[in-house]
Design goal:
Strands 3, 5, 6, 10, 11, 18 and 19 form a seven-stranded mixed beta sheet that branches. It contains ten helices and 19 strands. Helix content is about 25%, strand content about 25%. The chain has two domains: about 180 residues, Quinone Oxidoreductase, Chain A, domain 1 (Alpha-Beta Complex); about 140 residues, NAD(P)-binding Rossmann-like Domain (Rossmann fold), CATH 3.40.50.720. With about 350 residues, it is of the alpha/beta class.
């Protein structure tokens, strides 16, 4: 079979590699891959910024945004051949820490977790893969074209869970949300906001291309002139920050109304300085009882929530998030999409080729 692999730590090592098909261990599903999504994490691994191969291996199969169809499933697993599935990314540490012990491996305390396609475990960018039945999630059969969006949706589902938990510390009836960034995470965050009946606003830099139309077709409002122009007509109750742009992060924290919740999902690059009026920001956060939380990764509950979000969403709208789809032979085209694009996906379904 073919797989997309890198030598972690070595630039320009991303390659299509011939590998033997995996043998399912006891309790594993054997899955024929349909597609794998490409995100910033994959690009950073390809650029040798991080990533760790499995013990004893030189190469890492990348890909953590999976979609496949079950070929073989063990009796009693709850899965059957033909089921549409995704594989969960993270596995708990072997100790385990307290969070991992209760299934919150997305919040591992000691850092000894592993991750498919990222850290010490091969990923899903191969024509065939295996996954433990306990770490597979079944999708609605009608999501075959868009189910590859499951993993980023799970990340957003967790972000919304964090907002709910923090807001729930007191009376909390939010009416509006600002999402900064109209990439996959931002647009999926906006989708959930609309599904919740909120007044949704999305801020991004581009003025044309698919992003403004995708926001409008959700029934949300698109902005491109900065946070100040957006909040002049009313401060949002919630901000979900999905860019990691350093200056914008601080502007987002200061944008909410009283008792506002800001959830940071974008990772900022290190080594960049910004000018911030820290005193004013601190004063606002304290005097308005605001809260700021970081959120990353997802556990099984978030994947289940994501499956429900996708099942309830308009399939045509979801399909339009995928603005570039290429066969595995042209994988390099999925790693060079520009800012006007939304989501790049690599097709792995050899039967459809």
């Amino acid at each position: 079979m073919r797989a997309l692999t890198v030598i972690p730590g070595r630039k320009r090592s991303l390659a299509l590699t011939e590998m033997p098909e995996p043998e399912p261990a006891e309790g594993d599903l054997l899955v024929d891959a349909l597609a794998v999504g490409v995100c910033g994490t994959d690009k950073e691994i390809a650029d040798a910024e991080y990533g760790t191969a499995p013990p004893g291996a030189d190469r890492l199969v990348i890909g953590h945004e999976s979609l496949g169809r079950v070929r073989q499933a063990p009796d009693g697993s709850g899965f059957a051949p033909g089921d549409l599935v995704v594989g969960v990314v993270r596995r708990p540490d072997p100790v385990p820490c307290g969070a991992c012990a209760i299934g919150r491996f997305d919040e591992c305390r000691n850092g000894r977790y592993t991750e498919r396609g990222i850290k010490q475990l091969d990923g899903y960018a191969s024509e065939v893969w295996t996954v433990e039945a306990d770490y597979a999630v079944k999708l609605d059969p009608g999501l075959a074209e868009v189910g590859v969006l499951m993993e980023p949706t799970s990340v957003v589902a967790k972000a919304w869970e964090q907002v709910d938990k923090i807001g729930g510390r007191s009376w909390f009836e939010p009416k509006s949300v600002l999402v900064t960034g109209a990439g996959p995470i931002g647009l999926l965050a906006a989708l959930i906001g609309v599904q919740r009946g909120l007044d949704v606003h999305v801020l991004d830099l581009v003025t044309d291309g698919p992003k403004p139309d995708l926001v409008a077709d959700l029934g949300a409002t698109y902005h491109h002139e900065g946070i100040d122009s957006m909040v002049k007509d009313g401060e949002p109750d919630i901000v979900i920050e999905a860019t990691g742009a350093s200056q914008l992060v601080f502007e987002a924290i200061g944008a909410t109304g009283a008792f506002g919740v800001t959830c940071l999902t974008g990772v900022s690059p290190a080594g960049r300085s910004v000018n911030v009026d820290a005193g004013s920001l601190n004063r606002e956060v304290v005097l308005e009882n605001d809260a700021v939380v970081g959120s990353v990764n997802a556990n099984l509950e978030h994947y289940a929530a994501a499956a429900r979000v996708l099942a309830e969403a308009d399939r045509d709208w979801l399909a339009r998030l995928i603005t570039r789809r290429v066969p595995i032979e042209r994988f390099d085209e999925a790693f060079g999409v520009g800012g006007g694009n939304v989501k790049a996906v690599i097709d792995l379904d050899t039967a459809a080729a």
